[in-house]
Amino acid sequence: MSHSRHQAAQRPCEALERRSLFSAISGTVYVDRNGNSLHDGGDSGYSPFNGPNASLFIDLDSNGTLDAGEPTATADFDGNYTFGGLSAGTYVVRDQTPPGFINIAPPTGAASVHLPTSASTISGIDFGIFPIVFPGQGVGFNDAFSVMIDPSDSTRTLIKANNASYGIPSKLLPSLAFGGQSGNDALTIDDRNGPCIPVGGITFDGGINSDTVSYFGLPTDDALTLGSAALATANRSVGLASVDSLNLDSGSGNDTFTINGAPSTLGQLNLYGGDGLDSFAINHASSNTAVLADSGNDNDVIFIGTGSSTLSAASLRCNGGAGSDGIILKANAGCPDTVLDGGTGDDDTCTYYADGSSNAITVNTTSVRQSGFNGFGFTNADHIVVNGTSIADTIDVTTAATGPTVAVLGDAGDDVLNVMGTPTAAANPLFNLGPGNDQLNLAGGALIVPWDANIEGSNLAVKLNGGSLRFTSTQHIASLSIASGASASLERTASNVNTVLVTGGLTLSGTARLDLADNDMIVDYSGATPLATIQGSINAARAGGAWSGSGITSAAARDHPNHNTTLGAMEATDFQSVYGAAATFDGEPIDTTAVVVKYTYYGDTDFNGKVNFDDYVRTDNGFNHHRTGWLNGDFDGNGPVNFDDYVLLDLAFNTQSAPLRR
Hints:
Elements: H1 3-18, E1 23-31, E2 44-45, E3 55-58, E4 72-74, E5 80-86, E6 89-96, E7 101-105, E8 110-115, E9 121-122, E10 127-131, E11 133-134, E12 144-149, E13 156-161, E14 164-169, E15 176-179, E16 186-190, E17 202-205, E18 212-216, E19 223-226, E20 230-233, E21 236-241, E22 245-249, E23 256-259, E24 268-272, E25 279-282, E26 290-294, E27 301-304, E28 315-319, E29 326-330, E30 338-341, E31 349-353, E32 361-363, E33 367-369, E34 375-379, E35 383-387, E36 394-398, E37 405-409, E38 416-420, E39 430-432, E40 439-444, E41 446-449, E42 461-464, E43 468-471, E44 475-477, E45 479-482, E46 487-490, E47 500-503, E48 506-508, E49 513-515, E50 520-523, H2 531-542, E51 551-553, H3 555-559, E52 565-571, H4 572-579, E53 584-585, E54 588-589, E55 595-601, H5 613-624, H6 643-655
Parallel strand pairs: 1-9, 1-10, 11-15, 12-16, 15-17, 16-18, 17-21, 18-22, 19-23, 22-24, 23-25, 24-26, 25-27, 26-28, 27-29, 28-30, 29-31, 30-34, 31-35, 32-36, 35-37, 36-38, 37-39, 38-40, 40-42, 41-43, 42-45, 43-46, 44-47, 45-48, 46-49, 47-50, 49-51
Antiparallel strand pairs: 1-2, 1-5, 3-4, 3-6, 6-8, 7-10, 12-13, 13-14, 19-20, 20-21, 32-33, 33-34, 50-55, 52-55, 53-54
């Protein structure tokens, strides 16, 4: 400061030393509750609940700082103040803004006052301040706070603190802080009339006891992200401490919830999606937090445990509400009490991703469970999807006629699917076990497989320990094993004209039945040929033409009105001797170590689907040279070619209709 300026600044002080003066400046520090920069009705003098009264000073050197020797004044409990003993001159009076307040009128907190004479008194130099920190009423009180945009003026923010109401132009509000103490305190942040969170954010510290924060989102799309200490909405933030319950309601719009953490004190987290296509990603919470996610109306998606960290929560409830919803849970969710409710809409899907361990996954009509806390219970679900991992997964599935459909998706690895089917046949579970040496075990009930189980290269071994299995499309499987009392069938549908069972091995025990109906089979064996075993199984089922026995049977042959069809079996080499080494059977490639089985007419020695002169020639040749086998005329499979075979040949020739497919 220059020497001359310093002297000028000291003149009022020098005058105070030389004589008694009677000039004064007075006014009130008031709380501008409506934020209109006027000291009017509804405003009150500043009365501090805690801490010192308001203080002011005369800024003699106009540097904005209280310096030594500058006059000060302390307001009374009603906010009134007076600077007395001043000489004539111009003074800058500054309000030392109380903690937790901002200056509104004047916005700089400074007023220039001119005293024309040494006996002047200037009153009404008021300072309007506005609270931005609300500490609550004190110990034992239940405080209630709220923030929202004025529904009649979108440029103003309304604040309620218990019974006191405040309003302020939103652009003047830098931040807000609310604090409870030992009561059950609550803060409501309502963005439904527009964004009400200041640029500097809102903080809430509930103190002890049960404290609640509720947020209501914009009528447009919201993006809400919760961390361990704050809630982020668009570009604004709400700091959270000592919060026991948090309600996030996004309302209408296509909203996004991302839960990456939660305050350590949080006992209940409620997420409400409302209308719109909403998306939830619940990645992490605290171990004492009960989480409720309600996606509301429309087609919504809830992802659980999809982040890199492990979700830990006391309980988890997800409700799809109306619409076709998807709820997806990764095994690292680690929540001991998880229930997924598809809601009232149709076509709701609950999906589980396995945890990568060797622990079995169990699916029944009410839950999906794996090791530890991994898995969930479910209600109102239309579809359950279980995703395996690249290791060997074991999945145990029990379905019911009225339960949801179950889909099991394997990955690389040798997976095992154990099924207790529904009482009536259904394609439930659907499955695709992926590449690997996989196994399907049916323990009981009924199961339909409407697609090729070899999808994506699964080398699938099928084992029926009980119940019944229906293949309704061509199958390529590693092996088929049917225990005594169990059954399998191969059925042709309108969309599957050529249906064939291709397997690397076939085992039937006791009273097991394999019904090929009017379809064919290839047994692509290794080692010794199973032709004799296959033929013996056909003979047992044929039961002299009644088709009433166990074994490899044909309901189509049994029910044919002319009783002129059967199952014929021959080595692939015999078939190739007629059609060439490159011949295919039902469009399937065959090698020299395969047995082919065909539903056809008695006497169709070459499997061309009809009985003609060539078949008589081969039968005569077989009879004359004492040969055996289907190609040579042994149509009843008893070994030699004899009179009975000629009877069957003539029957078929005389009663055959259209050629059977080749």
